[in-house]
Amino acid sequence: MDDGADVELAAWLENRTTFEPPASFVEQANVTDPDIYEAFEENWPDCWERAADLLDWRRQWDTVLDDSDAPQYEWFADGQLNAAENCIDRHVEAGRKNQAAIRWVGKRGETETYTYGDLKRETEAFAAALRDLGVGEDDLVTLYLPMIPELPIAMLACARIGAPHSVVFAGFSANALETRMRNAEASYLVTCDGYYRRGDALNHKGKADRAVRNLDWDVETVVVDRLGGGLPHSLGDGQYDYGTLVDDYWGESVEPVVRDAEDDLFVMYTSGTTGEPKAVRHTTGGYLAQAAWTSHAVLDIKPDDTYWCSADIGWITGHSYIVYGPLALGSTTVIYEETPDYPEKSRIWELIERYEVSVFYTAPTAIRAFMKWGKEHPDEHDLSSLRLLGTVGESINPKAWKWYYEHIGNESCPIVDTWWQTETGGMMITTLPGVSTMKPGSAGQPLPGIDAKVVGEDGEKVDPGEAGYLVVDRPWPGMLRGLAGSDERFVDEYWQPFSDPDDGEWVYFSGDSAKVDEDGYITLLGRVDDVIPLGDFRIGAMEIESAIVGVKGIAEAAVVTTGSELLAYVSTERGYTGDAVLRRRVVDAVEDDIGEVAVPDHVVFAPELPKTRSGKIMRRLLEDIATGEELGDISALRNPETVGELRARLAGET
Ligand code: WTA
């Protein structure tokens, strides 16, 4: 295409606000019936049987929803199944043992393919090993692994024997791992010796050892040899070589443990408004049903597809849409260990071409980076295998949406902008790609059967165009079943704000603000609490702040985001100055307490942080200063003079 036509197309795209799904997509889509919304509504909650029917059950359920103990809802409660059996065995039994289940691409360009047959043998061997190490049904196993095949294998081995897993993101620090293991009283850990990043080998086991050393109970640790140099012959007490275990147990068959639908499949730690991370509980039946159903209806995954979600398995997106959803449907899932621009910026597109990926699911922050790197990278590759594109994690601005649509999707792939959370387990608000009109920037309507709406402080729906709080009125199968060890916090954080328990009315509060248009399309506006979405996952501002104020000489800290960068405003105690040494200590403290992922891009030292007369730090104002927004009236501040000072320091810093 010549440059003139390119400019013309860009201008045309720029002004377009709605897009219809391409006919070529609709013709082959899994869900195409526009009446599905009404059909679900009329038949609620039994409509959700359509999701559960995508799975194989050992015992059929009688009751779809039990709401007698709300908000402790139960779904398909008297049904029984095993998640690993649904993700592996049934595909093998259907004669598909040679189909690729996982295509793994490692950081050094290594590739490995696991067929469903391979996956069955390897998970069974590891399940047998775990069982012999003493892991029983309902014993929690912590998995602290990077994006290597052993991570999904360990998850599925746990699922096979009915042991809930708790995956801790590999980029988290020793302290963060320790907090999570302590909170869960975890006695089993699977980790690795190290892993590569941009060619360098990182010592991962050192972090795992530090965490375990601080626990005052015994932990059995399995270590994967990821660096490839072999593990030391003697690993230390209670430590086992994954490779040796799998060899020893190779060929053993392990019957999948029959689980009740409401038995836990996993816990996933996530951030809230306080410093203490929350252990979100997900169950076997409802979670898996929603993950499979949304993979089918929204991601349009078919068994023959090679599908790629670029998230990390350490977050909920990877759990639901790299592992459980795509494998439950028997498709091929790509697992990519490296960052998207290494060893070169066309890596992702090269792999899409090589594996003929048909569905690609990523985060807007990645798309913005792709845009910055330039369209020449995708242009170099044949991306015609792509049929559908998706995004998750934050709102996608229309400009990025259109770039994705044009340069990656070649204007022939619908885009699904999917809103959901760790707590919801699966997608909640997005378009059905074979049915709905798309509006760049807006996630879309709630999915069929999902009762999400935007309400004011009073809990009443707001008018179209007005901002309000995003709530979900009726339960859904993939919803969290609670926070491990904290029933009170479960009710306080999610239910108390908009429910009327005396009237038996329970309304789930998402923590997000949103607005809705005349067609019922929901546009997300951001968090209303101090939780910061960072693309693939989220972190509580408070968690980072408490790490920072732990540094000697620091008085106060407030962390905000501009959308693309993380900033920490930090005030010092008398006698200390915000110099390079203190800055280093701040960075080290965040790295030690949480991990490198949460280190602020900028640390702005200030004599004082702006506060209200009642002494509350004005975060919104700090955000506006960071983004360079027009500031409103600041005369009501206790210390308005700090504002000019902060601006000057930020200008010096950035
Ligand atoms: C944000 C990730 C706008 C939101 C699956 C939510 C989004 C938080 C979108 C959950 C989207 C997620 N548009 N915002 N499509 N998807 N979010 O638990 O603030 O890591 O509450 O789950 O990410 O983050 P979490």
Overall pLDDT metric: 94
Helix content: 25-40%
Biggest sheet features: 7 strands, mixed
Got a strand count?
29
Query: Beta-strand percentage?
Result: 15-25%
Q: What structural class do helix, strand and pairing data support?
A: alpha/beta
Shape category: globular
User: With helices defined by DSSP (H or I, 4 residues minimum), what is the helix count?
Assistant: 21
Uncertain runs with pLDDT below 50, 5 residues or more? none
Bound ligands: 5'-O-[(S)-ethoxy(hydroxy)phosphoryl]adenosine
Features:
654 residues, 7-stranded mixed β-sheet, single chain, 29 strands, binds 5'-O-[(S)-ethoxy(hydroxy)phosphoryl]adenosine, alpha/beta
Write a concise synopsis of the structure shown:
It is built from 21 helices and 29 strands. It is α/β, with parallel strands linked by helices and 654 residues long. The strands form eight sheets. It has a seven-stranded mixed beta sheet, sandwiched between helices. It has a seven-stranded mixed beta sheet with strand order 12-11-8-6-7-14-15, with helices on both faces.
